[in-house]
């Protein structure tokens, strides 16, 4: 399957509590190629936070999950059942990510927010729910390499 054939579908858009989640899900649905490295069945959560304090309290503004299906992605409100991982993103990071125009630009900016988190400029953190090697085998590693989060195989053990 070619990347440009991927589709993005948002399920129950009215269920999102915040405008930023609506904008982010719309963006992700327009750029399903961001998820092209993931294997069928990959499913993970996006939790949006307005500050590091709300992140520490595990009190996100909004949560949605992305499922890699046969022809692209499906974006649904709430947490996934048995998700692979959770991405925690600051609203400032999301506002900048949705300005990007390509998978590579998105990945590089995403990596910046992971590697150099900043309360003012934006931050991204992640919580793995499966073994690192399992996630890499599912295709998450390729995105992490593009984003600059995984520099080489030695970095696998430092996640």
Please give the structural blueprint:
Layout: E1 7-10, H1 19-30, E2 43-49, H2 52-56, E3 62-69, E4 72-77, E5 85-90, H3 91-97, H4 103-115, E6 124-128, H5 132-137, H6 140-147
Parallel strand pairs: 1-4, 2-5
Antiparallel strand pairs: 2-3, 3-4, 5-6
Helix pairs in contact: 4-6
Keywords:
159 residues; alpha/beta; six-stranded mixed sheet; 6 strands; disordered C terminus
Short description:
This protein has 6 helices and 6 strands. It has 159 residues and is α/β, with parallel strands linked by helices.
Describe this structure in words.
It is a single chain. The chain is of the alpha/beta class and 159 residues long. It is 32% helix and 23% strand. It has 6 helices and 6 strands; from the N terminus they run E-H-E-H-E-E-E-H-H-E-H-H. The protein has helices at 19-30, 52-56, 91-97, 103-115, 132-137, 140-147, and strands at residues 7-10, 43-49, 62-69, 72-77, 85-90, 124-128. Helix 4 crosses helix 6. The chain is globular, with a radius of gyration of 15 Å. Mean pLDDT is 91; it is low at 155-159.
